[in-house]
Amino acid sequence: MARNRGFVVGFAALICAALLSISAAASIRPISDAHRSAALELFVPVDGSFPSLEETYEALRTFQILGVGKTSDISGATCPVVLDKLRSSTSSPKEFFNALRLIGILGCQIGSQTFENVASHLQALIKDADSLMDLYYSVISLLHIKGQGVSAVLSDAEGVFHSIKALSQSDGRWRYDSNNAESSTYAAGIALEALASVVSLADAEVDQSKIGIVKHDIEKLFDSIKSYDDGTLYFDEKHVDGSEYKGPLTTTASVVRGVTAFAAVAGKLNIPGDKMLGLAKFFLSIGVPGSTKDLFHQIDALSCLESNRISIPLILSLPATVLSLTSKDQLKVEVTTVFGSAAPPLTVNLVQASSYDKNTPVLENQELQFDTENNIHYLDILPLKIDVGMYTLEFEISLHDPENLNIYATGGRTNALAFLTGTIKVDKAQIGVFDSDAESAATMQKLDLSQDNRISLAANHLQRMRLTFQLVTPLGHNFKPHQVFLKLRHESKVEHIFALESSARQFKIILDFLGLVEKFYYLSGRYEIELAIGDAAMENSFLRVLGYIDLDLPEPPEKASRPPPQPVDPYSRFGPKPEISHIFRSPEKRPPKELSFAFLALTLVPLVGFLIGLLRLGVNFKGFPSSSVPALFSILFHAGIAAVLLLYGLFWLKLDLFTTLKALGLLGVFLIFVGHRTLSHHASTSAKLKTN
Predict the structure, then answer these.
(1) Which tens digit of pLDDT belongs to each residue from 187-204?
(2) How do residues 461-488 score in pLDDT, each as one tens digit?
(3) What region holds the Ribophorin II second domain (predicted)?
(4) Which residues does residue 547 pair with via DSSP β-bridges, in sequence order?
(5) Residue 142 in contact with residue 154, Cβ under 8 Å?
(6) Torsion region of 49: left, alpha or beta (phi above 0 gives left; psi -120 to 50 gives alpha)
(7) What does 93-137 look like in DSSP terms, one character per residue?
(8) What is the pTM for the complete model shown?
(9) How are beta strands 483-490 and 525-534 bridged, if at all?
């Protein structure tokens, strides 16, 4: 049974894995609610705050872009820390940087004098800075101060611009300082963002020739961009010390922030739109990152691409990549920005649909209709006579307004995978038994696999069994699934599995029992016939019992191999256990019932004599309390003694020891209480009598 369950599970798992591989290979999707949920799960404050100001900014910036979370819950604990950092004379440029960029998000109330003092301090730091990171932190901090409405102007903007530019390399990368010969792609993004801030803070226009040189450096930097086969582009470090290596995601995010920031102040850059689209695909292809750093870099970089002066990427995606011909599903295509915003007016054209396996075109030049209500492009595929299977779809986007060509990046042609499923018909199914030398004269029984009909066959070792059928797609073509198995299972649970191959447009298998006697371990008896047909494109995949065949095989020789031991079903231990039959010893011989009753009467004679003596002597009630409360406790005391005697009698008749002890414990506590009150009253009464 366990083995059969494993076969069923494996059969279903292979089909599910095929469908999951289609989803994994599907077109990328814009930022979705999954990212918002991940942000709320990953960025979790402790006691109303995050461990550091840097982590606080990453969390709040991510929340701000995604439109989730509440900054008011964080500001109460964070704003005092921000104010302390700004007022401290020992704060480093990085600490000023982390504090100042939080003010715009949290809305901390900081006085203008504090901003002016920090700006003056940063101006002094910039004059003495000799590293890229110190210049970056100081210049960006001044830009944040300017954003608060406080005057923050770089008097020597040309000199600061030159200091940063002096660290650049001929390949478009930057060094961290003049003493470090290693250049970094990550540092290039930092430098470009710093240069953009210098241009924004300059009291006069920066020399355009210098800006032109930086634009040329950016072009050289993009010459080193790396790519995947699907057009995804990214940046990575070449030769950087292990302590400074940032990884492709962090490095690419740094370059995107720097390039878009520089383009915002320097104007249009000579960067092809396809490269901006390739960078957007890189961030979206990551899916939902599992760490706070990665999620921040992904969301922040995509927000820079969402609105930039170079090219805004338009993402073509398929909401569903598995389409059912039975359900008459439509091919739907969405074209949005990276955050799912609506695209400008455009047309989506299906240039070509090719079979994934054979790479042969089955459809060409089909324009998709546009649903204005749902903002989606669609195509009815059922009238196009496309059969089941996997297809490579090639789309092309055409913008209606020519001016949008300089604003948006469509990427030319975009490829996506789609999987069409349908109901496969099992046709001309027949099964029969024939003699080894009379295959042509075999009498075949027809099988209707759409119904639960079972056949019964009988054969000996000199005969053969033949099974044939055809699989037909909705368009009448022959279909070859991934899995076609025939299984014979003996009464002893020994199973034998055979794979069926297709030939001459049909599936056929002939079992020669004479050649299979050793494989069948010479086990005669009834075998269950089971057929399994499965494929990811087959909506009606099945695992069905066809019937039974009674095999009469010869007796096994002495040295014949024995059937393997069947695995124990691990779930069998949870089933019903065998009933336990108790065998009690014979009861001992007892005296006659009459003698037992006579003995009982004899044991009651002293009690009867006691009661007669009480009646003859009389009962003395002179010492019984006359007051109501003591009298009540005396009555309860005697009633408790009577209850104990009654409990003894019940124990003798029907109660078990544990129940009796439990009741006796409760009665004992009651007797101690009322008995103590009764005896105390008698003692006080006796003392008064003696005194009188």
Answers:
(1) 999 999 999 999 999 988
(2) 999 999 999 999 999 999 999 999 999 9
(3) 314-404
(4) 455, 529
(5) yes
(6) beta
(7) HHHHHHHHHHHHHH-----HHHHHHHHHHHHHHHHH--BHHHHHH
(8) 0.74
(9) antiparallel
